[in-house]
UniProtKB/TrEMBL annotation:
Positions of the HTH tetR-type domain: 14-74
Keyword annotations of the record: DNA-binding, Repressor, Transcription, Transcription regulation
PANTHER family tied to this protein: HTH-TYPE TRANSCRIPTIONAL REPRESSOR NEMR, TRANSCRIPTIONAL REGULATORY PROTEIN
DNA-binding residue intervals: 37-56
Cross-referenced Pfam families: TetR_C_6, TetR_N
Signal peptide feature range: none
InterPro entries, alphabetized: BetI_C, Homeodomain-like_sf, HTH_TetR, Tet_transcr_reg_TetR-rel_C_sf
Name listed for the protein in its UniProt record: TetR/AcrR family transcriptional regulator
Amino acid sequence: MTDSSPRGSYTVGRERRERILDAAQRRFRDAGYAATSLADIARDVGLTTPGVKHHFETKQHLLLALAERRFDLAAARALEPIEASDGTRTLRVMNDVARLYASQPELMELFVLVTAAAADPSSAAHHLFAERYERVIDQIATGFEQDAAAGLLRDEIDYRALARECVAVADGLQLQWVLSGGTLDFAGMSRVHLERLAPIILRSGATVDLSAPA
């Protein structure tokens, strides 16, 4: 028996939307964004093209939704508890997120693609990226500042500026990963950058191996 209540209809619509996104992610990975059509994605999920357009008006809307999904995945990973009493908690969170990105190379490629669109203030991507970037920078800066207040990190450092630097390095490495054809060790280079920061910000001045448990 089909649930025809508003809640049931919403659940069906949400599940269909996620199936479309899954199919688009696979298609973009295997055939490339430019070579994929909405009709291809519709066939993969057993819908008509108008059926897909009911959820995503254009292919660019699909790309934007995948970028938003990636932000959500990273935010969820960042909220996972990490035990680190040595002041490296925020560094370890960023290292975990970099590893997550590296495990989903097709999303890394799409992220770089949609970043170019976000540079246009009139684009839908611009609002999404501006809002999410500020949220990410707030989270990173707050993590550093909490450990500084606990006496684990040096308190004379501008941690909001450092948070922006970390985001810029991560984004730059993703672009270089795409330009290298996926040969760049994105996760490894991200970890090296974060480990380089450790003795600069830790009150102890200790070096850190982020690949080892805290």
